[in-house]
From TrEMBL:
Residues 348-490 form the N-end rule aminoacyl transferase C-terminal domain. It catalyses: an N-terminal L-alpha-aminoacyl-[protein] + L-arginyl-tRNA(Arg) = an N-terminal L-arginyl-L-aminoacyl-[protein] + tRNA(Arg) + H(+). This is Arginyl-tRNA--protein transferase. Its EC number is 2.3.2.8. It comes from Pyrus ussuriensis x Pyrus communis. Residues 1-25 are annotated as: Disordered. GO terms for molecular function: arginyl-tRNA--protein transferase activity. Keywords: Acyltransferase, Transferase, Ubl conjugation pathway.
Length: 633
């Protein structure tokens, strides 16, 4: 699918800095920052990183910073202090020429293709009549919207029925996975990697065996038993006090209880539901799905299933999922357009972002402000480089962009990306919850990979797709390794190490010098392990690839600056005294080397500044320190 480039208006590119230096990088050193961690949710300020505020930055300098472990949130650049932070974050990338799509990724592409061809009518959410008494049901029943009337006509043959049933089973499995993930994020389940849920059709002969009076039982999942076994295996002695406290909600005298786990998942699904049709019940550890309308238990027609995302009770997302999707005429082929525009504020994009954050991430409406959105996803310090037509720059140029996904004139997703000399760096994706059934996170990632492949003809240096940070200790981020064959950046030598080679080290400890195991890499032939090939990311897509912003909701830094005299010896060991003399200093509108002005400062002031420059050179490297402007203004 072709991508149309919009000229649009220029984005915010200086972050409040002067626009007179668009051809150079100008940064302010924020030093060490401590903040709360959005991954392990420790509650304390255990996430430690070094921060820079960028007034402007060239695309070459930012590319080099990425390859040293840096990343940006708006105009704020940050790099985890890998040996000290609670969740070491490794930069992960994919060489697109070697990309091998998994079965799941292929299935996502085919599903979108069927949707665009108009053959996915019976598989996407359909229109249903809301039951006014639905809210009066007991908490042990969850309603999942079901519509079969429109599907009976369009799915009459057996092949289509089978395909429709497979889509429903996959959809329900995804909803259970989302519930498991939600319980893990909320702290009700421990933060470990759980098996993928599998919802299966219950055969007629087995229904009475499972539960009495179950003539309307359609589907069932035993995921609670698998979760219980995984918890027992991962936390055999419950040595972690924090995790032990979590387990009290889902354990009995015998340990992790499938019955309690199934009830917790049922409760979670109940919070997601808003339309009547299917009921969900936890029965002796099984998660069962029933037909609420007492229809024939045999699969006479393909039914479409719809589950509203997490904030069904919130006013801003009320009554949208089933209604909006049903507006698409089954006889009309939807039209998908992908537009690439330079980063700039767009009211329609902000409205979609606001809805996404509230529905998917459960943010409160008052915390999703225009100012925080601008600072996080619109403002960019990257200096735009226009196309040259000489094979060195892609037709869109280099810089920060928003890639819009539009279906029949409706904006349904926006990918925030940086296009640099060697890569496309994926920063954030937000999407319309009504279109979750199309797996927008997975689909957009595949589109971004294809974009790099297509634009290599215009810019031969474009070779990679950067997926942000990979945190091995965070199970929700391990899906990134499913884009094979991926590489992780060694935090010490800044060498790229194949994931399969790095994984054994990360299995043993969170922080590892990855290049230690790749010294003999030339003699090794990396392969894609079966475990990596089994890793797939769920339909919530890239909200997990999205790195947590370094801002709070009002755009202020959620961090504190820390400086220690004890760092002097450590820093001096890495940087020779004379090295920082060539650091380029920005002072009173001039650009001078520190060695040329160092004696203009008093002894104590000079000593303090030298300490800062030691630290700065250590985290950005000698070449970048001498190339970028270290602003003292």
């Amino acid at each position: 699918m072709s991508v149309k480039t919009k000229k649009g208006e220029a984005g915010s590119s200086s972050g409040g800095g002067s626009s007179n230096h668009r051809g150079e990088s100008v940064v302010v050193d924020y030093g060490k920052n401590k903040s709360s961690c959005g991954y392990c949710k420790s509650g304390a300020r255990t996430s430690i990183s070094h921060g820079l505020w960028a007034h402007s930055i060239t695309i070459n300098d930012y590319q080099d910073l990425l390859d040293c472990g840096w990343r940006r949130s708006g105009c704020f650049l940050y790099k985890p202090e890998m040996e000290r932070t609670c969740c070491p974050a490794y930069t992960i990338r994919l060489r697109v020429g070697d990309f091998v799509p998994s079965k799941e990724q292929i299935r996502v592409s085919r599903r979108m293709q069927r949707f665009l061809e108009g053959t996915l009518d019976c598989k996407k959410p359909g229109e249903s009549i809301e039951n006014p008494n639905a809210s009066k049901d007991t908490c042990s029943h969850t309603h999942l919207g079901v519509s079969s009337s429109a599907a009976k006509e369009s799915c009459s043959n057996n092949n289509e029925e089978k395909g429709g049933e497979e889509e429903i089973l996959h959809f329900l499995s995804d909803q259970v996975d989302n519930s498991v993930r939600g319980c893990s994020e909320s702290g009700e389940f421990p933060d470990i990697q759980f098996p993928k849920a599998s919802v299966k059709k219950v055969l007629q002969a087995k229904r009475k065996l499972l539960v009495e009076g179950s003539e309307d039982l359609l589907y069932s999942s035993n995921i609670a038993f698998q979760i219980a076994a995984t918890i027992r295996k991962s936390l055999p002695g419950e040595k972690d006090a924090h995790q032990g406290r979590l387990l009290t909600n889902i354990t009995d005298e015998k340990g992790p209880s499938p019955k309690l786990i199934a009830e917790k998942l049922e409760s979670s699904l109940n919070q997601l539901a808003k339309a009547s049709g299917l009921l969900v019940r936890a029965c002796n550890g099984h998660l069962n799905f029933y037909s609420a309308t007492k229809q024939a238990s045999s699969y006479q027609s393909a039914q479409t299933v719809s589950v509203a995302k997490g904030s069904a009770t919130r006013s801003e997302s009320k009554g949208c999922s089933v209604k909006n999707i049903s507006q698409y005429n089954p006889g009309k082929r939807p039209r998908l357009e992908i537009h690439l525009k330079r980063s700039s504020f767009d009211s329609e994009e902000y409205a979609l972002y606001r809805r996404y954050q509230i529905a998917v991430h459960n943010d409160t409406p008052e915390h999703v402000t225009e100012s925080s959105y601008r600072r996080f996803l619109v403002d960019t310090p990257l200096n735009y480089v226009p196309p040259k037509g000489d094979g060195t720059v892609p037709p869109c140029g280099f810089g920060s962009f928003h890639q819009q996904y539009v279906i029949d004139g409706k904006l349904v997703a926006v990918g925030v990306i940086d296009i640099l000399p060697r890569c496309l760096s994926s920063k954030y994706l937000f999407w319309d919850p009504d279109f979750a059934f199309l797996s927008p996170g997975k689909y957009s990632a595949l589109q971004e990979i294809n974009w790099v492949k297509e634009n290599q003809a215009h810019c031969s240096t474009l070779q990679y797709y950067y997926l942000g940070y990979y945190i091995h200790s965070c199970s929700k981020m391990r899906y990134k390794a499913a884009y094979c064959p991926s590489e992780l950046l060694c935090p010490l030598r800044y060498q790229w190490v194949p994931f399969d080679i790095a994984k054994p080290l990360l299995d043993k400890k969170q922080y590892a010098v990855l290049s230690d195991v790749s010294i003999r890499q030339d003699s090794l032939q990396p392969h894609v392990s079966e475990e990596v090939m089994k890793v797939q990311h769920d339909d919530s897509g890239k909200e997990d690839t999205n790195d947590f912003p370094m801002y709070d909701n009002e755009g202020a830094f959620d961090s504190e600056y820390e400086s220690s005299d004890n760092e002097q010896n450590l820093l001096s060991a890495d940087v020779e005294d004379g090295d920082f003399g060539n650091i380029l200093i920005g002072l009173k509108g001039s650009r001078v080397r520190f060695k040329d002005i160092m004696f203009a400062f008093g002894a104590s002031e000079r000593s303090y500044l030298e300490l800062q420059l030691h630290r700065y050179m250590r985290v950005v490297g000698k070449e970048l320190a001498e190339r970028m402007v270290y602003s003292l203004e």
